[in-house]
Specification:
CATH class: Alpha Beta
CATH architecture: Roll
Largest sheet: 7 strands, mixed
Number of helices: 4
Structural class: alpha+beta
Number of domains: 1
Number of strands: 7
Strand content: 35-45%
CATH superfamily: Bifunctional nuclease domain
Strand order of the largest sheet: 3-2-1-7-4-5-6
Shape: globular
Order of helices and strands: EEEHHEEEHEH
Radius of gyration: 15 Å
Length: 142
Amino acid sequence: MGLVECEFSRIVMSETNDRQIVVLKEKDGDRKMAIAIGIFEVWAIHRTVNNEPPLRPLTHELFGNVLDELGVKVKRLIVSSLENDTFYGRLILEQNERIYDIDTRPSDGMALAVQKGAPIFVDEDVLDSASTDSFSPGGDEW
């Protein structure tokens, strides 16, 4: 399994649609893929990317604070598979030189990874099958 490092290309937030979109782009290439996520996860990612902390810790900040207090480092998020239009992910954590591989929804993993400055990787096969040249939430292109 080859992994490709990706970064945020676009965050599409909609107040009239339950479906929020995060577009990941391979760091050293041109492929892009869109992942539909929930409103809470998109706001957590948006706040972090725009350096807008909430007044009080919300769920993703709380979990990040707990990891910090326990001395756990977020090493990376891996979007590991795509099955029946659902993405699956793994959060790789480290504590005292011990590695933990935790099943996660990619949206929660992205919120935590961006908060902690950890890289996001996508399995090569997932990127191949999910990448597209256009994306249209109402006709927009990326």
